[in-house]
Amino acid sequence: MENGNGESPLKGIAIEGLDINGALKRFSGDEEVFIEVLRSYAAGTRGLLETLKDCLVGERLADYAIAVHGVKGSSYGVCAREVGSLAEALEREAKAGDLGAGRAGHEAFAKTTENLIRAIGAALTRIEAAIDRPKAKAPDPELLRQLREAALSFDMDRVDAAMAGLEALRYESESARELTAWLREQVDNMAFEEIFNLSLPELQARAGLAAGGRTETNQPAVPHFTAPGAEILIVDDNGTNLKAALGLLKPLKMRLDTAASGKEALRRLREKQYHLIFMDHLMPVMDGLETTERLRQMEGCQDIPIIALTADEALGAKEKFLAAGMNDFAAKPIDMEEIRAKLRRWLPGELIREQAPRDEPDGLSDSPEIRADLPVIEGIDSGDGLRCSGTRELFISLLGDFYKLIDLKSAKVEGLLAEGLLRDLAIETHALKNTARMIGAGELSEAFGRLEAYGNEGDREALERETPEVLRQYRAFKPRLAPFGETAEGEKRAASNEELISLLRRLRLAMEMFDLDGADDALERLEELRMPEECREDMEILRAQVADVAMEEIVELAGAMMKKIERAADGRIYGEE
After folding, report:
1. Model confidence pTM above 0.85
2. How far apart, in Å, are the Cα atoms of 413 and each of 115, 380, 474?
3. Can you give the pLDDT at residue 371?
4. Of 202, 232, 318, 502, which one has the fewest beta carbons inside 10 Å?
């Protein structure tokens, strides 16, 4: 990143209370990343100061400790050591239940932090003025539309992406420059309502554009490319998310590995070096934050770019990810334009193989012909499902996976609620929220989102009141999706015990090697065959476990099914009289 004289825009910049050189080392000298993190830190910390003030007024020391812990981590992350140290002391006092000491120390902490935020704001103004950006007459109306829609849905990741696009250019008109500065102020202050209260024509008019008019900018579209030498690890406990990610990323020709847990990710990293990791945030046992912290301590893993895959829009989420050692963020469900931009930013340049942009994104056809061929299913917007999954083939496959998990996941949610494991229930419903959204079941996704919120808040009464109705809605999808998830027994081919055992052995081996394609292929072949009566119930469970990528359970159940078949009469052909 350079200014018009070929110099760093950070030249001559100093921020009292923040070690710029130390922070740059943490980001491998990447000034662009550092500036973006600095902007996010200022905005997030400003919001957390308000939260902390409310916690003290309400004498909620436990909440105060959580919020100030976030300030501590993000402050140390950007080398704002004085604020970090003050936050650390306040966290100790809050955990000790010392309200008087907390109030006494908060005043000095708040003043120091506010001074730092002002200093960062002044520095960012100078930095932005120094950056040599391409010229344009006015902002791109499409970016204004994206920003307004993201602000309306309070989607932090997409707000930041749209602002980054708007700020990537130097505008010739004063009105465009003023609008961009005003938008930045609203975003930094989290005043999203100020943005979406303006209609798109009003935003265009303030930018000096005619409503609905076009603009000429020098901002290129995100180029298409392949990266055949790139080694990528995708970490997610949700099988549907993994399957969708593999399908969407396949056209980029990268070498893709998957891990269904933090533990599995660490094992893979001990065996192999990766150029980049996509890391899910919410996972049971070891979440994405803990996994990242642990892998950063492993030899050779300090500098691997880690991109969080998250639907977390909570205040301070970005700072929390950065403090754990992550480098960037991408929203769920995956948007390929955003993912291409992240890959281009973080992969070594020598791995990128440029391609001319095509009329349609890789693997995605949204033509009227494709739309006309989509299934009509009550409660599902197939167009949204197609956009999230990328291809009709993958969308139909995900519908089948969704069907196969309904009984298993419904029973799991009921069990967690009965046992009072509300945090685990929140994680489970978070995954179901994303899976429902992936197939275009927006209303069901929102319902699971409410259960997730109740779980995070520990509101068992609300969960007991609303969970039965949400699960009723969920189970109602089973007959609707049956055509995509099951094959009638009478349509299946007769099979010998040797053939069944061979396929079960192949399935078990594929899961032990974490070869998801191999596991899917083995299951698909098993689905074509008639199972012995004593294994049909096991087959239902196995189908759900494969869809959920439950590796240990699959290995155990496949072994048990093989033993049952081996006990059958030698040479028996299942399905024949």
Report:
1. no
2. 47, 22, 11
3. 53
4. 202
